[in-house]
Design a protein that fits this description.
Helices cover 76% and strands 3% of the residues. It is an all-alpha fold and 334 residues long. The protein has a single domain, classed as Formate dehydrogenase/DMSO reductase fold (Up-down Bundle). Strand 3 and strand 4 form a beta hairpin. Helix 4 (59-71) crosses helix 5 and helix 12 packs antiparallel against helix 13. The longest helix is centred in the first third of the chain and has 29 residues, at 5-33. The radius of gyration is 20 Å and the shape is globular. 42% of the residues are buried.
Length: 334
């Protein structure tokens, strides 16, 4: 049996990007909602709920981008050339929100400015990531193994739709994270937010899902024609079931279940995304095998990943375990 290393590397990158989205997604979501929390105790508690883990969350972004460069260099070149503007906007936003995160404690005289920078950087990063997703899904012009489009090709109604949708979904992750981690007034405010953000996220998923099949014929065949329809039908059904379970957990005032169910919806959306684009790494233009580096490089990198990936997973899991439980404004975890 021949092992297809290109597929294995695609799965590794898929895993890294998914972990980044769900882990950094909730702290970006808290940033998006941050200005809605009362100044003082509630904002400090929200910030402290992510303080021990937010830096480590971005490890997965580095792994996803680095893995793409190493395993699929052609795809990396095409994607970064075509999406230079939103990717740079995302990176600058992440840098700015990181600076704001630290300086709001060290420069209390200007805390209002740093809070605004933290919130604005979080929103811009989320919108940029959604725009990148939408621009990739709608297709990238490639000719002679290079990007052949224009500077503004990424900016379309569909990419703006996905940008707003990702920001809404991240805000839901942030709200459900605070439902799990906070107590008292802040938890209740987060629970109230999670109700309407859950509905908005479901509407966004339906809107993006309805638009995607009409971007190209391959998506349409996969999602709306036999036999592809039979293979993908479980995804929307499971999203619907997870949504019902989310409503029931919120009605029962559960603390942990809403967050876990939101993660489940993210996973189902990622699976649907993977079904849509496979076997392309640049949708409609470059397949996994066309973009892949040579076999010996894939083998060499895989050995390193076998060692490093469990270590990253281990210290990530350990950090979340150490800082489990409720959090207070002074940073203590119960």
């Amino acid at each position: 049996m021949t092992i297809d290393l290109s597929v294995i590397w695609a799965l590794i990158i898929f895993l890294a990007v998914f972990i980044y989205v769900v882990l950094d997604g909730f702290d970006l979501g808290i940033g998006i909602l941050f200005r809605r929390f009362p100044v003082g105790h509630d904002r400090d508690t929200a910030m402290n709920s992510i303080a021990p883990v937010w830096d480590g969350n971005e490890t997965w972004l580095v792994m996803g981008g680095g893995g793409l460069l190493a395993a699929f260099p052609l795809a990396y070149a095409v994607i970064f050339s075509s999406l230079y503007a939103p990717i740079i906007a995302m990176l600058l936003a992440l840098v700015f929100r990181g600076v704001a995160f630290e300086f709001r404690w060290r420069d209390p005289a200007h805390r209002g400015f740093w809070d605004l920078a933290f919130s604005g950087g979080s929103l811009l990063a989320a919108l940029s990531q959604g725009v990148v997703l939408g621009a990739l899904l709608q297709g990238v012009a490639v000719q002679d193994r290079a990007y052949a489009g224009g500077w503004w090709d990424w900016l379309t109604p569909f990419s703006l739709l996905t940008g707003v949708s990702v920001a809404i979904a991240y805000a839901l992750l942030g709200a459900t994270w605070l439902v799990m981690k906070a107590e008292g007034r802040l938890q209740q405010q987060a629970r109230d937010m999670a109700w309407w953000l859950g509905g908005a996220t479901l509407v966004a998923i339906v809107a993006v899902s309805a638009a995607t099949p009409f971007l190209n014929a391959a998506y349409f065949d996969t999602w709306l024609r036999w036999p592809g329809l039979m293979a993908v039908a479980p995804v929307p059904v499971l999203v619907a079931l997870a949504s019902v379970a989310f409503v029931r957990s919120m009605s029962a005032k559960r603390d942990v279940a809403p967050f876990l169910l939101t993660l489940g919806v993210f996973l189902l959306c990622f699976i649907g995304l993977g079904i849509s684009v496979y076997p392309y790494v640049v949708p409609g233009a470059v397949t996994l095998w066309e973009a892949a580096t040579d076999h010996s490089s894939q083998v060499f990198m895989l050995w390193g990943t076998v060692v490093v990936l469990p270590m990253i997973l281990g210290y990530t899991a350990w950090s979340y375990w150490v800082f489990r439980g409720k959090v207070s404004a002074d940073g203590y975890h119960a």
